[in-house]
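$ run holo --ligand "protoporphyrin IX containing FE" --emit tokens
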Amino acid sequence: MAQKLDLADLQGNILRAYGRQGFPKARYLFLHIADETAGRAFVETLRPRITTAVRWQSKANYPGEVIVDRPKVAINIGFTFYGLLALGLPTTTLRGLPPEFIDGMGARADILGDLGPDGDHKWDPIWENNKIGDGHVHALITLNAQMNPDGTPVEDLEAVTRWLQDECAKLGNKVRIVAGHGLDGKGLWQDASALLEPDSTGALQPTAKEHFGFTDGFGDPVFDGQYSGEMEDLRAIGGGAINPDQTWRPLATGEFLLGYPDEAQEIPGESLPFDFSRNGTFMAYRKLHQNVKSFADYIRDSAAVYAKAMNVPQDEAEQTLMAKIAGRWADGVPLMAAPTFADWKAFQAKEQAQEKLEKVGHHKRQENSLERQLVDFKYASDPDGVKCPLSSHLRRVNPRDMLDPTFRPGQPGTWSGSVLNNRRRILRRGLPYGPMKLEQGQNDNGEHGIVFLAVCSSLFRQFEFVQQQWIQYGLDFNSGNDTCPLIGNHGKGAKFVIPSSVESGEPPFIAANIPQLVEVRGGDYFFIPSMTALRMIGMGIVDPT
Ligand code: HEM
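-- output --
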């Protein structure tokens, strides 16, 4: 670890994926600031309660490390460009902000593929009305809460929400919560929650599942300074950048935090003063609806064709089709570790055996452990996508070494690692929303999906590039106009090719006529300031001279 970060200056949601760290419940509140002085007063009131990145008690703490108590509710804040304008930031500071952030997500809808052929879209009213005027979204407050044993959020979530409402009222509602979420469009905020499942005692436990039935949250970039001590090198395996010698290293800090060298070894141009930008970053908030019935129907029907073509049972065909679309089996085992259904079953058997060993204390985590295989894989050994299809969700959103410009299959020493991909990484920080599958009776029309939060230092270079070039096009994946089979726009006749090996003599399988599986319900871009910048904003002392 070369970089030592000032954790007390960073907001905690940049380094931590709260959902996986004991905060399975979330609430996202959006604010409109009608008055500069009131806005600053609100920021000043909130500032002492913001959750920073200072570490909590954990097994990974090193001796002497500063630690603070884990809160019941983690609180963080971000601002849109118009929010910063409403707070009275100087023009010199505002004009240094990146164009895509100034535009906001709504204005970038066509670039992102968020509009249908006639400009049609189904955004929640809050995002429909997100234009200059009373409904303009200026700030996002994220609340991530711990959970009661019955699966409800801890009472503190309501208490913090009431406190925020009271603070708005005290300011004569010159800072107010913008409503307009959900099916009836009246929700005051957006709630989210990990999907819950009962354990052996019947108690509800948070899972890493999303609504289609995949286990999510394995892949997350690791950057220099993010973890302390040895943990960083360990986490960089599978999460960091790939060196030409095929080892892993943490990505450059500047890919995720402003004010540090990035993968191009440059400190990108920033908004002045330097202390305003440094330790801040950007976040894309996107509400993504999932058509769970369409997904289940499609998998069932296409699997029937696959089963016949490949001469395998329906269940195997369904599981295989799901895995080929995502790049991982439903439980998260990557296709690169277990390319066939039989390999997957063997992997699961090993996991069960390991669990038993762990219970009696015989198992030691080894170099080639199963845990490591869940994240430590590359695509060089699979140039044609026979194991993991080139067009699968996983290969598109993090191609790892696949787009290596010098790599020639079968010629060791031609590798240059993951250079092209290193500048396109995003930290994912969201959670699912809406009731669990069983409760919603497998209907498309309910209120369920993912609140997708992408954190990166350049929304344009990282989030937007992945969304536009890799999800909504197929050229980098030798897939022509095919979009991502899981989350891309699926116009009439959308298809997904599952390659077969040349040696097998089998034709590829073409999954045809994929319906629209994911629909955007709206969102926006937010600047996540450092604690120093928050103080400057709150006190009105952003001085770019
Ligand atoms: C409803 C929408 C989505 C669903 C259901 C979904 C599902 C999944 C699943 C099942 C995985 C595999 C688990 C893992 O590797 O962590 C995954 C990984 C990932 N997804 Fe998505 N995803 C969605 C939206 C998006 C969007 C919009 C983006 C980017 C703009 C994205 C980027 C990623 C990334 C970067 C990974 C990790 C890949 C890796 O590191 O190998 N996903 N997603």
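-- notes --
Residues 361-365 have pLDDT under 50 and may be disordered.
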